[in-house]
Specification:
Strand content: 35-45%
Radius of gyration: 17 Å
Number of strands: 5
Distance between the termini: 44 Å
Structural class: mainly beta
Helix content: under 10%
Order of helices and strands: EEEEE
Length: about 80
């Protein structure tokens, strides 16, 4: 199990609420499992290795995906 912790960023959670200072995003095996205040998540197993990435001074907005594609452009002749 791989856990990555993005921490210390200004977090916009997409709910319309005020941004969260020093927010965190916890990612497990490429899936977001927690978004919120830094005191709101702790690993269930204390033996799990957590890779922490400090994002001080940055703003993050989790969960966006790239869904912009031009399907017809793929089949045009070069």
């Amino acid at each position: 199990m791989n856990i990555t912790l993005l921490k210390n960023a200004t977090l916009i959670d997409g709910t319309g609420n005020k941004s969260i200072e020093h927010g965190i995003i916890t990612i497990q095996d490429e899936k977001i499992i927690y978004v919120g205040k830094s005191d709101g998540w702790q690993p269930e197993d204390k033996n799990i290795v957590v890779t922490e990435i400090d994002l001080t001074g940055r703003t993050i907005l989790p969960g966006l995906i790239d869904c912009h594609v031009h399907i017809a452009a793929e089949c045009l002749p070069a």
